């Protein structure tokens, strides 16, 4: 029997039985709806994939790619969007853009729309997106590429930035200028990427026997306003740091 024929025989009740949940819970997970907790959703999606469940999707190519970004007003992203779109246009593809404004719910909704539109692939450039959404894309056999995010347990392609080298060079530059009291404005520290950058910053300082006191760490949220607020706090410190990363 062909594998595709076997996949078509997998029903929602089969997934529900294997996962130990209700059929409605399986439906919510597969359609990215409801209020399932992330662990349950991920469990259902993984079991669905293991059983060979394949949602019905048109096989016809749409020559469209979905791109999910965090903040279109951030100066970093417009250049990225233009670059991605230019490459896609050269290959006859169109771009569907989703700006989440760091809202994971908006990101999930947009991913569902990408699936409904039968896009040929998705590029994810936001850390504020639940891993189960990526699993949902895989279940729908939509290729995924994630940017600057290391996702353990999920077999997806990714592009990682060598921030360790960049941070090391920046610290070396500041130290060469004579700075030893350096503050840092981080991203949200509940994100692994922000934690990893903070660790790299500490390591770079250690090479010059420089400690990083807790009162020199200011948590931001990647938005310009939070950076401004953090800088105002830094400027009120006494003694005040001589440099900020």
Automatic annotation (TrEMBL):
Stretches assigned to the HTH lacI-type domain: 10-55
Pfam family, one: LacI
Keyword field contains Transcription: yes
Keyword line: DNA-binding, Repressor, Transcription, Transcription regulation
Molecular function GO labels: DNA-binding transcription factor activity; transcription cis-regulatory region binding
Alphabetical list of Gene3D superfamilies matching this protein: 3.40.50.2300, lambda repressor-like DNA-binding domains
PANTHER family: HTH-TYPE TRANSCRIPTIONAL REPRESSOR PURR-RELATED, LACI-RELATED TRANSCRIPTIONAL REPRESSOR
Protein name, as recorded: LacI family transcriptional regulator
